[in-house]
Design a protein that fits this description.
The protein is an alpha+beta fold and about 180 residues long. The protein has two domains: about 40 residues; about 120 residues, 3-layer Sandwich (Rieske Iron-sulfur Protein). The chain is built from one helix and ten strands. The strands form two sheets. It has a seven-stranded antiparallel sheet, with no helix packed on it. A hairpin with a 2-residue loop joins β3 and β4. The radius of gyration is 31 Å and the shape is elongated.
């Protein structure tokens, strides 16, 4: 007697079952793996930043005669995976220009990135690295100065009638244009 059915092929069916299981398992593991990788690498996509405006000083700390004072800028800082609470991120010179107005300059020389000093006897800022000189208002004082621009002025806001908040930012040295560093 001869039947019309084909003999079963257990090897072929076993291979298809195993191949299907491997494919489903790979997809099931790939999706959470990619999601985890995205979450892990996400901080690298973001720019490192400080938190906008920073409280730097009080109006009481500045003399009314317009002479500048140097202050550290302290803020929380996040850079990729590292969070640093309340660390120095730079420094500024602050000076009164009116009863409730203040001018702020980044202490970094726009020529080569050295920190400038204020010389009260000359009423000007001087860079010890290459002798750039800046007037009290931050503009280049000497035409022979190697600096391509004046000191980098920063945005200032007076809050609560006495708090000096500065939008701290660093800029590229060596360029005539004021280009922010991210």
């Amino acid at each position: 007697m001869h039947e019309n059915t084909l003999p079963e092929n257990p090897v072929r069916r076993g291979f298809l079952k195993k191949a299907s299981a491997v494919m489903i398992g790979a997809l099931a593991g790939l999706i959470p793996g990619l999601a985890g990788l995205f979450v892990f690498l996400d901080p690298l996509r973001r720019k490192s930043h400080a938190s906008g405006s920073v409280l730097v000083a009080s109006l009481n700390a500045l003399p009314e005669d317009g002479m500048p004072r140097k202050f550290s800028v302290i803020a929380s800082h996040t850079d990729a995976w590292t969070r640093m609470p309340e660390v120095p991120i730079g420094a500024v010179y602050l000076r009164r220009t009116g009863e409730k107005t203040v001018q702020a300059f980044n202490v970094v020389c726009p020529h080569a990135g050295c920190f400038v000093d204020f010389k009260p006897d000359q009423k000007s800022y001087h860079c010890p690295c290459h002798h750039s000189a800046f007037a009290l208002d931050g503009l280049i004082k000497d035409s022979k100065s190697p600096s391509p621009r004046g000191l980098d002025e920063l945005k200032v806001e007076i809050r609560n009638n006495s708090e000096i908040w500065v939008e701290f930012q660093n800029f590229q040295a060596g360029n005539a244009a004021k280009i922010p560093i991210s």
